[in-house]
From TrEMBL:
<dbReference type="GO" id="GO:0005506">
    <property type="term" value="F:iron ion binding"/>
</dbReference>
<dbReference type="GO" id="GO:0022900">
    <property type="term" value="P:electron transport chain"/>
</dbReference>
<dbReference type="InterPro" id="IPR010980">
    <property type="entry name" value="Cyt_c/b562"/>
</dbReference>
<dbReference type="GO" id="GO:0009055">
    <property type="term" value="F:electron transfer activity"/>
</dbReference>
<dbReference type="GO" id="GO:0020037">
    <property type="term" value="F:heme binding"/>
</dbReference>
<protein>
    <recommendedName>
        <fullName>Cytochrome c</fullName>
    </recommendedName>
</protein>
Length: 139
């Protein structure tokens, strides 16, 4: 019984330490929801749908104009919107538009290129979701 109480006390202390510990920046980015985080999640879902359509040989429709909000959506940390972020987001949009306007033969290749430009930007800003984003790639 005494041991049990000690175990409980220790876990209580550990738990409260964890609560109070300052989270590293990356974790903070992952758990707070910003306009940009919401857009990112929408792009993730949208591209998962496109991946399935490509695999099924279905039409993918038109480029979702909402993706252009990457140029002005508010970030969790507004300082992340620097010159390199702007450059990577332009490249990403170009690649994504090519998925919708390019030839059917290069659809899979163009799609993977667009997903890789998600990953390229994430390597510089927010590495946490990279393993998840890689699941979008068509093998
Ligand atoms: C130009 C850089 C850039 C590009 C391109 C980019 N991301 Fe992000 N992504 C970020 C940043 C920065 C955040 C953190 C956003 C925030 O917290 O405000 C983020 C956050 C995320 C998140 C986590 C959202 C959350 O709930 O916290 C996911 C998932 C994600 N991106 C997926 C994607 C996918 C999928 C693509 C491509 C279709 C993509 N990203 C393209 C920079 C980028």
């Amino acid at each position: 019984m005494k041991q049990l109480i000690i175990v409980l006390l220790v876990s209580l202390v550990l738990f409260s330490c964890k609560e109070e510990r300052k989270q590293p920046k990356e974790e903070l980015i992952m758990y707070q929801s910003s306009e940009m985080a919401a857009l990112m999640n929408a792009m993730y879902e949208g591209n998962m749908t496109i991946k399935d359509k490509i695999l099924e040989g279905e039409r993918i429709g038109d480029f979702p104009e909402t993706y252009l909000n990457i140029h002005n959506a508010v970030l969790t940390d507004p300082a992340d919107r620097n010159a390199s972020f702007e450059a990577f987001s332009k490249l990403y949009i170009q690649n994504m538009q090519l998925v919708y306007s390019g030839s059917k033969d290069s659809l899979k290749q163009n799609f993977n290129q667009a997903v890789n430009s998600c990953i390229t930007c994430h390597k510089t800003t927010c590495t946490g979701p990279i393993p998840r984003i890689k699941k979008l790639l068509i093998k």
